[in-house]
Write a structure and sequence with these properties.
By secondary structure, this protein is mainly alpha-helical. The protein is built from 3 helices and 2 strands.
C-alpha cells in the first residue's frame, strides 16, 4: 500500500501523512514564533520577521494574518 501524501498547510510542500498538519520545518518555525512572541508580546511584525529569520509569508500564516 502506498503512503498517503498531503501538502503542509503552511509551505504547501507535499509531505507524508502525519498527525500534524505542518511539515517538520514549519512546525519548528511555528514554535520559534510562539516562543519569541511569549518573550516579546508587543513586538512589531517586521521585528519578529527580522529576529526569527522566518519568511513574512509564513509568519503571517502562522499568526492568521494572511
Amino acid at each position: 500500500m502506498s503512503d498517503f501524501v498531503r501538502n503542509c498547510q503552511l509551505c504547501e510542500i507535499p509531505m507524508k501523512s502525519s498527525p500534524f498538519l505542518l511539515c517538520p520545518d514549519c512546525l519548528q518555525e511555528k514554535e520559534q514564533v510562539r516562543v519569541f512572541l511569549k518573550k516579546n508580546p508587543q513586538v512589531p511584525l517586521h521585528e519578529l520577521v527580522d529576529s526569527t529569520q522566518i519568511p513574512i509569508s509564513h509568519v503571517k500564516k502562522i499568526l492568521g494574518i494572511d
